[in-house]
Specification:
- The chain has 10 helices and 2 strands; from the N terminus they run E-H-H-H-H-E-H-H-H-H-H-H.
- The chain is mainly alpha-helical.
- It has 2 domains: about 70 residues; about 60 residues.
- The longest helix has 18 residues.
- It is globular.
Length: about 180
């Protein structure tokens, strides 16, 4: 895997973060969460060294079709097909891919429920048992303001514990949180 590659979650990767549908192992899921479509493989490896061999985890996530390299100029669109489709013969691919037309890109959903679920998952993975003070608040949060308050509680706990990737969690969380009315 090239040090300069910038990886982004594919639609399957975004779905996995939101639903845990594939039951990806905890370590791989944590690496998937920190993939943001902006940082290089080298930067991810350096910033998350405590998670072990990040390169191997990123390669495995790529093979699973959960992350893909992005074009250096766009930093948003995967430059290659996920491995899950790359190995499928052209005749077996969906029509939009078989005819050379790009598959439509999924619209990034924003919802309170999705943002709350993501924050629950990220908090559970990052804060471990120190997340108890915020759990009940998160369970009952039904508005954007309440979710933002819960995030600030998470940020405070993360700061106390020395969690280094809270900015990445914030970026993902804010991307899922609906805009103010």
């Amino acid at each position: 895997m090239n040090n300069d590659w910038i990886l982004a979650k594919t639609s399957a990767g975004l779905e996995e973060v939101a639903t845990r549908g594939r039951r990806v192992p905890t370590r791989l899921r944590t690496v998937l969460i920190i993939v943001d479509g902006r940082r290089s493989v080298k930067h991810l490896s350096e910033s998350a060294a405590a998670l072990g061999n990040i390169r191997a985890a990123l390669a495995e996530l790529r093979d699973m079709g959960l992350v893909a390299p992005v074009e250096s100029s766009a930093h948003a669109t995967p430059a290659v097909e996920p491995a899950s489709r790359a190995s499928v013969s052209p005749a077996a691919r969906p029509q939009s891919v078989a005819h050379g037309r790009p598959a439509p890109q999924p619209v990034r959903r924003r919802s309170l429920a999705l943002a709350r679920l993501y924050l629950f998952n990220a908090m559970e993975q990052s804060l471990r048992q120190a997340d108890q003070p915020v759990r009940e608040h998160l369970r009952t949060a039904t508005s954007r303001a309440e979710l933002l308050m819960a995030f600030e509680m998470c940020r405070d706990i993360a700061s106390e514990l020395g969690v280094g990737h809270i900015d990445t969690i914030e970026e993902q969380f804010m991307g899922m949180l609906p805009e103010e009315n």
